Amino acid sequence: MSLNEGVLGTFSFKGDHAHTMDHPPVLCSGAVKQNNGIYPAGLVLMRDGDGKLVPWDGAATPTGVCDLPCDTATLPACVYLAHGTVRAAVLTKAGGAALTATETALLAQATIHSV
């Protein structure tokens, strides 16, 4: 075996994630608006005027999708999917509403695709 054929390592995701492995996920961590409730996995996020992650209202450009549940009362940041594929069944926006077809298309324009 040559040097460039070795396995450098593996990783696995456990828990209730929003992302799928259909496309390798690009996960980021971002500051959340404190005491803004619990962000469930699948909540579409945007940035507020202070640059904090808040639930998407369907009007602004989406920043990403919350990948793991996040309690903003105790956690200063959440892990979110910035690029890749997510489970369509878990996608929600502000108020817990499901996304419309138009909103799902906006999410795709932000390079996050639902499957």
Describe the structure.
The chain is mostly beta strands and 115 residues long. It has one domain: Beta Barrel (Virus Head Decoration Protein, Chain: A), CATH 2.40.300. 8% of the residues lie in helices and 29% in strands. It has 1 helix and 8 strands. The strands form 2 sheets. Strands 1, 3, 4, 5, 7 and 8 form a 6-stranded mixed sheet that branches. Strands 2-6 form a two-stranded antiparallel ribbon. Strand 7, helix 1 and strand 8 form a beta-alpha-beta unit. The chain is globular. The model has no long low-confidence stretch (mean pLDDT 87).
Tally the helices. 1
Assembly annotation: single chain
- Which CATH C-level class is it? Mainly Beta
User: What is the total domain count?
Assistant: 1
Q: What is the third-level CATH name, the topology?
A: Virus Head Decoration Protein, Chain: A
Helix residue percentage: under 10%
The CATH architecture comes to Beta Barrel
Tertiary shape: globular
- Biggest beta-sheet profile: 6 strands, mixed
Distance between the termini: 38 Å
